[in-house]
Design brief:
Helix content is 59%, strand content 0%. The protein is mainly alpha-helical. It folds into two domains: 2-46; 57-92, no CATH class. Helix 2 (60-70) runs antiparallel to helix 3.
């Protein structure tokens, strides 16, 4: 057995089975960390930095007002659609 004593590592190793398990676990953790980092970076870049998560999306009336302001619809169409959305004849 030479100068090393019993076993491959002179009695200091954990054996092949446990050593391979730790090496595999180490690489799985490294790869998982890289995946999490990449996903965090990608999702962060896709978010609109000016949009708050607590602010609700535009309502149908908001979109109607924008279309009227851009000139996509005339006043008569705007008023009719606004009445349909709000359910009453009066002004806001």
């Amino acid at each position: 057995m030479g100068n090393f004593g019993p076993g491959m590592m002179g009695g200091y190793g954990m054996g092949w089975g446990f050593g391979w398990f730790l090496m595999l676990l180490w690489w799985v953790l490294i790869i998982a960390g890289i995946v999490v980092l990449v996903r965090w970076l990608v999702v962060g870049s896709l978010r609109d930095p000016h949009k708050s998560h607590n602010v609700p999306d535009k309502t149908a009336l908001d979109i109607l007002k924008e279309r009227y302001a851009r000139g996509e619809i005339n006043r008569e169409t705007f008023e009719q659609m606004r009445r349909d959305l709000t359910g009453h004849e009066g002004n806001e």
